[in-house]
């Protein structure tokens, strides 16, 4: 219960409050704020000040106090919350965030700078506070009384296990300690578990407590109060809903009845509140991991059952397999989170970037309830940010241009998410100027991405032209301004998405706007794979990338023939040999096959010895030792117990194309370029 | 130290600490006495020097036991430490219940 241990919690909580504050401020910007929203803003500032006071963070307290003072006036109606004040408050919010971020002590340099900018902000605020009486400018440094700065009520339900007394703990002492974190506004002793007189063991604990605590402390700090009995109690801490305070208030006249009634309302509340439960992410990952093992073990078992040839055994193996599949699906669902909060962060980005560029842009969000894997959400945030910034910067025109083009002066940026055929689609769309085919082609020619083989681009479809902007090296920062489309680092976006085994596509209509669609798999942990063999080794290729399999002809196999290209129904197909790529020992098998892969709009072949069929694989990440090996994305254990490597196809493609481009430049082979494009 | 029975209204008293260390012994004696109660049970807690969860639990158990016999439990003259625990747990109504009724 070291106070330092609680600092990260304070930081995390403050960030959360600041996010709420930001959302509320942004809401005020467009409509006249109602009392609830203003209260929310005030509460956020108030709580941060109070908690910061507990820790003795004078800088945060001083600054936030002034902000709170102004907000208090707004709340009282003596200061009008206009767009100007909202803008100042937003900056103040950012400043508080910066102050809070500094608290983790990693950046000493920044603090002096912050002090200067903070002073300027306060100056700006003073204009508002002074106008209404000036008292707000008195700096206050107080270690806030936790009872006073109570911004939140918590419902705490704790049931002590039978052995807690024998283990030398006194539950009452934890409740006394809770009293030091805030004010206990209500408490009920849950004694329903007391047994019959005959069965009563005075050294066992049968009691539970339901406590309403008014405290500025966060959930983790409250939980920390029970640190010493964590093993010996069941603890539920939930923020108290304001509406319920009224319901819980009336107490009946007889004391016994009071306790009972309290208890029933409490347990009812517990019933609804406990529906959702916070689980440590690591535990969840552990579960998924084990289920992966289970899938593998199940596969082994069904192979064994088939070998044994017993009908009964086979049937049971089948049923078990089905159950395992169901459990797996359920477990994967546990990791799903809604994309809403990720989308919400873009409100501010859009506002700020648009303002910076002097554009008027509205963000519309839909599909925020769409769920996807927790790890995917984290990884997709950066590419999304890139796309959003691009759309604002290069997609949507300025108000004048829009008006002269007969469009609404206010541009619209849309974020949308939905599920589609086993994957999640996230759309970033704008109603801007769209991509200009001519400019992209001119650029691609200049960069050597297309050549005479494409008729200088004349033969390319619109989609193919649009796909060019995802090419590495298509655009570099210094060309940003003279290209009316987009293309700043789009290759990076694409690479990031590909790394998540997703894809990016783009639709654009000149003058009407652009839609970028990110398609992601629902989960990263389990995929449908295609198993191939080389020598004694087994490899898995993600099934969705496999287009077809053909036998490798004699001509391509002949030693000394032009290496690396096959003739696929008249088209040139570059290929690589897995045997060479991974230096698998042993000579080539008597027969070899090409697995034709389509990946990122390119087609190429992977030459293998054996085609072993489809299977579902649980991907296990490689240990850090192997993480730098290129071309391998993970490993999996087959039903036979054999290890198989999961190929990182985009990585292989990049690796082999890199080598190819170098080779094609030296041999000046034009045919190659048209295939690789 | 422990329970002494008085007339029809049973009066018990506890001296010293009411904690886990003596919980077994106290519970046995107090509950046995309470199960014989025919009228109000009063427990004098003026001499209690310490009360912990185990002690509180015994009091709650006593209340249950006497209630089952249709009689009242009343804690009288609680010492300061008893008062503190009862207040913390919102169990003051146990004190002098009969006086209020």
Which terms would index this structure?
heterodimer; A: 677 residues; alpha+beta; Four Helix Bundle (Hemerythrin (Met), subunit A); Alpha-Beta Plaits; five-stranded mixed sheet; flat; B: 101 residues; alpha/beta; Transcription Regulator spoIIAA; globular
What does this structure look like?
- By secondary structure, chain A is an alpha+beta fold.
- Chain A folds into five domains: 3-137, HPT domain (Four Helix Bundle (Hemerythrin (Met), subunit A), Up-down Bundle); 152-273, Alpha-Beta Plaits, CATH 3.30.70; 281-335; 338-521, Heat Shock Protein 90 (2-Layer Sandwich), CATH 3.30.565; 526-676, SH3 Domains (SH3 type barrels), CATH 2.30.30.
- Helices cover 45% and strands 21% of the residues of chain A.
- In chain A, α1 (7-30) packs across α12, α2 (35-55) packs antiparallel against α3 (58-76) and α4 (83-102) packs antiparallel against α5.
- Chain A is flat, with a radius of gyration of 32 Å.
- Residues 131-150, 242-274, 476-487 and 664-677 of chain A have low confidence and may be disordered.
- Chain B is of the alpha/beta class and 101 residues long.
- Chain B has a single domain (10-100), classed as STAS domain (Transcription Regulator spoIIAA), CATH 3.30.750.
- In chain B, β1 (10-18), α1 and β2 (41-51) form a beta-alpha-beta unit.
- The model of chain B is unreliable at 1-7 and 97-101 (pLDDT under 50).
- Chain A binds chain B through residues 160, 165-166, 170-172, 175-176, 179, 184, 186-189, 191, 194, 197, 200, 202-203, 205-207, 209, 255-256, 258, and chain B through 20, 23-24, 26-28, 31, 35, 52-54, 56-58, 60-61, 63-65, 67-68, 85, 88-91, 93-94, 97.
In short:
The complex is a heterodimer of chains A (about 675) and B (about 100). Chain A has about 675 residues and is of the alpha+beta class. Chain A contains 21 helices and 21 strands.
